[in-house]
Amino acid sequence: MAYEALKQLQDAEARADDIIREAEARARSIIQDARATARMVVENAVAEAAAEAGASARAQEAEARAAAAAIAERAAAECRDLASQARARMAEAVDLVVGRIVTASGNR
């Protein structure tokens, strides 16, 4: 009877050791899976943030180009307007210059 009790105790201890080893192996596997999942989540978040930053930079660049084009068009229109005004007053300017030259040389 004592022998059987010792045998049962040894069997129970062996089963407990097996259960502990299996639990430790399962825990290591769970931790490894969790680390891999966390690494993947971080990589995905970094890639997503980089994509969003790139899209934002492209959008801001397009907006800046549009604003620059609008400013350039306004400047070109203003230059055309000034040139038109200058052409309209060209005869008056020529008369003024000729009048001064003639008056200065005394040939009036």
Structure, briefly:
With 108 residues, the chain is mostly helical. It has helices at residues 2-88, 90-105. 95% of the residues lie in helices and 0% in strands.
Describe the protein in words:
There is one protein chain. This protein has one domain. Helices cover 95% and strands 0% of the residues. It has helices spanning 2-88, 90-105.
Sequence stretches where pLDDT stays below 50 over 5 or more residues:
none
User: How many E strands?
Assistant: 0
Strand content: under 5%
Run of helices and strands: HH
Structural class: mainly alpha
Average pLDDT, to the nearest integer? 92
- Biggest sheet: strands, sense, closure? none
CA(first)-CA(last) distance: 151 Å
Oligomer description: single chain
Features:
108 residues, mainly alpha, 2 helices, 95% helix, rod-shaped
Topology:
Blueprint: H1 2-88, H2 90-105
